[in-house]
Design a protein that fits this description.
By secondary structure, this protein is an alpha/beta fold. The protein has eleven helices and eight strands. The radius of gyration is 23 Å and the shape is elongated.
Length: 282
Amino acid sequence: MNAKHSFLTPCSMSILNTVSSEAKIRSLVRKTVFAGRVRCPSCSSSKVRRIECRFWCRKCRRKFSLTSASWLIGMKLSYRQFWILLVCFQRKYTLPAASELAGVSIPTARRWYRKFQYNIPRTEAKPLSGEVEIDEAFVGRRRYGNQRIVIGALERRTGRIALQIIPNRAQETTDIFILQNINQKETTVYTDCFSSYRGIDLFFGYRHETCNHSQYIFGPTNRIEAVWSAFKRWIRRSWQQVKACYLADFVREFEARTNEPELFESPLNYLKKSLICSISFT
């Protein structure tokens, strides 16, 4: 690609210097998938024989490969390309930059970004407590029928967030979100003056404070407003746009990036929690 059409900067090019060799990455993936010892993903037997790049279980007589024993099944990339794309995903590089660094097409980079996104480990989050800010945001363009409502809560003490797509802003909808994600004991909830939040102190026992956005008073909800700004800026930068059918995955990824930043510090951190022997033979 000509330099004038390149999406790379000297900083992004430095990724290539940090990526290990094909054999080293393959070894790291193998140790991660099998937790050090190769076991058959069908019967969990350790009586496995290696035949070139595949494995054969002497107990159930099944053949399997390193990729078929995890969500990497069907991977046609080299391990080095796979590693580069994962680093780019973690560092929030744009799709054109990731495709150029890995030497793949933009549709391929997008497909793998979505695969990384889908396989972010799911963990049970603890309810937010203490001082919690709540607000909603409209994501997407209404004129194209692509707009959805996302409600969010932020715990001031830790910065943890809880996000959820909701069908409407009715009181019963917001009440369900609040009760599912916010501890009712000794919690102060900060919201705007929207009618759906009225009564949460009387009915649920929260301490409730409000601010009037129509009068340009945003102080008590400043941090959750900043979350929406960061969320929309991240979507525009990394994905350019978001379709409504993929919004749930974007919401979950952004929530994980905020609550579990260690997952995105290195590829190995991500793989240790997401790569498991999940293949089942029929």
